Amino acid sequence: MHDTLALLEVTDFPAISRKPLDTLQVNLGYKCNQRCLHCHVNAGPTRTEMMAADGIAMIPQVLKARQIQTLDLTGGAPELHEQFRELVSAATALGVKVIDRCNLTILFEPGQEGLAEFLAENKVEVVASLPCYSLENVDAQRGDGVFDKSIAGLQLLNSLGYGKADSGLTLNLVYNPQGPTLPPNQQALEADYRRELMAHFGIEFNHLFALANMPIKRFGSTLVSKGQFAPYMELLKNNYSAANLESVMCRNLVSVDWLGNLYDCDFNQQLALGLPNKAVRHLRDLLQNSLDGDGIAIADHCFGCTAGQGSSCGGAL
Could you tell me which of 61, 10, 9, 74 has the C-alpha nearest to residue 253? Predict the structure, then answer.
């Protein structure tokens, strides 16, 4: 695999700093039941990295100490961590909103029986990957059979109230382009998704998040192999919008890897770009220290969050 960090380190991206922290995004491990072409964490079935029990136990303590409102759980497939449900229960008991970044097919994996019902009981917000509403495009990006399982997963979640008006159960979908292009207009694409999924499968959802692919890890390596890395970076830079700087996710979020190390975002985590503040580098440091006003580690991949309509964990900016 090609390492793209050396191609990103020299940058003219503007300096930015943090606002008050409101979201703790935790990568519980890189094990996943899928191996997607666009995956920026290079997750898959053979990965073994998973957060240790002491790290899991520290998360509710940090949520309380920093009065964080949202716990955003990601992976890999975060549900594959054996303490996933224990952590969700502990966070919701504190009144913290929990987000599960779910690939949908995990709902049918052995050992995950009752997972959908558990998410509903705890009012966990589900952010579900569905890179297209057509079988051919989804299976090409995520593997044979993934589309049909994803549709079945969405129908299961709908049956529990997810995506339904006034249910209190939020179901958001995620779109990624299949190649080195910017996402289309999020509002128009959401209308297409809503129409097609309802017409063909009777599926409802709350919102669609259109995310740009980052030139790192598996996707970045593919760009290098195909000679597309430089053109893609040019595309991102040519579509830079300074207005998106106010809303990029790193302003209010901190990313935690499976070892408890802190990063300004999930992408910096995968590039091993640690926080500039050397006094706050680990989850345990947040028990006593704030990040408010700190600088943010930047590189050329940051143009991926600010190009065009912008891109963050919550979709277009």
Answer: 74
Question: Computed from CA positions of residues 258, 259, 260, 265, in that sequence, does the dihedral angle turn out positive or negative?
Answer: negative
CATH number of 18-214+252-290: 3.20.20.70
276-307 pLDDT, tens per residue?
988 889 999 999 999 999 999 999 999 999 99
What are the pLDDT digits (tens) for 87-119? 999 999 999 999 999 999 999 999 999 999 999
Tokens of 84: 């996933």
Sequential DSSP letters for the chain? ----HHHHSS--PPP-B-----EEEEE-BSB-S---TT-TT--BTT---B--HHHHHHHHHHHHHTT--EEEEESS-GGGSTTHHHHHHHHHHTT-EEEEEE-SGGGGSTT-TTHHHHHHHTTPEEEEE-S-SSHHHHHHHH-TTHHHHHHHHHHHHHHTTTT-TTSS--EEEEE--SSSS----HHHHHHHHHHHHHHHH----SEEEE-PPPSSHHHHHHHHHTT-HHHHHHHHHHTB-GGGGGG-GGGTEEEE-TTSBEESSHHHHHHT-B-S-TT--BGGGGGT---TT-B----GGGHHHHBTT--BTTB--
Mean pLDDT, rounded, of the chain: 91
Better-scored residue on pLDDT, 135 or 300: 300
